[in-house]
Amino acid sequence: MNWLFLVTAGIFEMFGVTMINKWHKDRNWKAFLLLVVGFGLSFAFLSLAMKTLPMGTAYAVWTGIGASGGTILGMLLYGEPRNLPRVISIAVVLSCAVGLKLVG
């Protein structure tokens, strides 16, 4: 269950980052509220996951999902560059997070 909490936290982190971009573009209260809710839920689920997972592993996986997912969403939703070095970098980040899980 702790890994489900951690993945859920990462997904809400991705949502929060996406809402930062939306808020910067629209500057309305709805985007800001969604930003706060997204990050709030992200921290809540991260906290639940860290009750049983080591801090270093949980934080690395959480930031890996958030950073990689945010980059992928930026490419898909906002026309950010899609090139091989970016894709390789995403793969490296995710493989490091998986590596921490495997050795920890």
Multimeric status of the protein: single chain
User: What would you call the structural class?
Assistant: mainly alpha
Mean pLDDT metric: 94
Secondary structure: helix percent: over 70%
**Main beta-sheet annotation:** none
Straight-line distance between termini: 17 Å
How many domains, in number, for the residues?
1
Secondary-structure element string? HHHH
Q: What overall geometry do the principal axes of the alpha carbons give?
A: flat
Low-confidence stretches: none
Strand content: under 5%
Number of helices: 4
Write the topology of this structure.
Elements: H1 2-26, H2 29-49, H3 55-77, H4 84-103
Helix pairs in contact: 1-2, 1-3, 3-4
Describe, in short, the structure shown:
Helices cover 86% and strands 0% of the residues. With 104 residues, it is mainly α.
Overall description:
The chain has 104 residues and is mainly alpha-helical. The chain has one domain. It is 86% helix and 0% strand. The chain has four helices and no strands. α1 (2-26) packs antiparallel against α2 (29-49) and α1 (2-26) packs across α3. The longest helix is centred in the N-terminal third of the chain and has 25 residues, at 2-26. The radius of gyration is 14 Å and the shape is flat. The two termini are 17 Å apart. The model has no long low-confidence stretch (mean pLDDT 94).
Fill in the keyword field for this structure.
single chain, 104 residues, mainly alpha, 4 helices, flat
